[in-house]
Amino acid sequence: MQKSFAMAAMVAVTLAMSAAHGQTPPAEPPPGGPPPDDSRGERGALFVNPMGQAFRASPESRRAPILLWLAHADADHDGRISRDEFVNEAMAFFANDLDANHDHTVIPIESTEFRRLHAPETLNLDTAPVTVTPTRQHRESNNGIVGARPEVRSMSSVNGLSQLGPPQSRNGPPPQRRGRLRQDEVMLGAEVEPVMSCDRDFSRRIDAAEFQACAERRFVALDVNRDGYFELHESERARAMLEAYGD
Question: Would the pTM count as exceeding 0.70?
Answer without folding.
Answer: no
